[in-house]
Specification:
- This protein has 304 residues and is α+β, with helices and mostly antiparallel strands.
- Helix content is 41%, strand content 16%.
- It has 9 helices and 13 strands.
- The strands form 4 sheets. The chain has a 7-stranded mixed β-sheet. Strands 1-2 form a two-stranded antiparallel ribbon.
- Strand 11 (222-226), helix 8 and strand 12 form a beta-alpha-beta unit.
- Helix 2 (76-85) packs parallel to helix 8 (234-243).
- The chain is globular.
- The chain starts with a strand and ends with a helix.
């Protein structure tokens, strides 16, 4: 299979479990195994969660500041890999993260806030957002449901935020993170990721809006896809919609190309089940009342 990353380029690779690669020859390999199991648990748990539909306004999708996204290749081969395994750290494919910003991590960006009092930062945010959504290149942008509880848990493990907490309030580190999480950062991520240590301590775009998520992000959390171009093939869109069934697909003008059918939430299913049970009970009660009435009429006729 092929994967493609912004810095990695296109590579012919093979997917394996993280622990099947001999990254270390000591106890750190056990930490790699823990990260593997952590991601696989999130991936399994994500199958049972509800995904919020991508927001819409006036017949188009609505792009809001803070929306989490990931740029990737638009090739179907690459998208099939992402759909099957998730938006994974390159180490799952035997490739060490090339820039040493966050090894064993998958990277995400955000839509930058443009209503900043700092004119230079405001202009910078506007340019970055335009590049993200409208640059004509062979990539697409995946958006994630950041209200989903699994996504919230993954964001709590952001390596860049860990470094920020460690530098600014080290005395509270054990209150924010578990011992296993600290072990993960200290033993296999931070020592090999000097490039990302100050991304969240300096207010510099785009780095302050980036996140490095250990392991990766389950693909089921994708709720929006920007194709960037208005020229698209119907068969391609159909294939992509099957790979990411929760995603609204739209172009660079925010026009909706494909919208998934609304799925009933767990609460809605529960309410329907309760209603069905109540309806059944009511029908049983009516049937019993009718039976009693018929029995009474029969008895009255026999007594005449």
């Amino acid at each position: 299979m092929k994967i493609q990353g912004a810095n990695l380029g296109e590579k012919e690779v093979e997917y394996k479990l993280l622990s099947e690669y001999p990254f270390f020859n000591d106890e750190r390999q056990e930490v790699v195994k823990k990260l593997e199991q952590l991601y696989l648990k999130y991936q399994e748990d994500s199958k049972e969660t509800d995904i919020r539909p991508f927001p819409q306004k006036d017949g188009k999708v609505e792009i809001l500041p803070g929306m989490i996204n990931h740029r990737c290749s638009n090739s179907l081969e690459s998208l099939r890999t992402l759909s099957q395994y998730g938006i994974l750290a390159s180490e799952w494919f035997g490739q060490i993260e090339s820039e040493r910003e966050g090894v064993f991590c998958s990277f995400i960006d955000r839509i930058h806030a443009e209503d900043n009092s700092d004119k230079r930062k405001q202009d910078r945010a506007r340019i970055l957002n335009l590049q993200r959504l409208k640059s004509m290149s062979n990539d697409i942008v995946l958006f994630f449901d950041n209200t989903n509880p699994i996504m919230e848990q993954l964001l709590n493990l952001d390596y860049f935020e860990y470094e920020k907490a460690k530098q600014r309030m080290p005395e509270k580190l054990t209150e924010i993170y578990t011992s296993d999480e600290i072990e993960l950062f200290e033993k296999i991520i931070e020592p090999f990721s000097p490039g990302g240590r100050n991304y969240h301590t300096k207010e510099m775009l785009p780095y302050c809006d980036w996140s490095a998520i250990p392991g990766g992000i389950p693909s089921i959390l994708v709720n929006g896809i920007c194709t960037k171009t208005k020229s698209y093939d119907n068969e391609y869109i159909e294939e992509v919609s099957k790979l990411f069934p929760n995603a609204t697909i739209f172009n660079s003008e925010l026009e909706i190309i494909y919208a998934p059918k609304k799925k009933k939430s767990t609460q809605e299913f529960g309410e329907e089940t309760l209603k069905e049970q109540n309806d059944t009970a009511l029908l049983d009660e009516i049937a019993q009342t009718q039976a009693n009435q018929e029995k009474t009429i029969t008895n009255q006729r026999e007594n005449k």
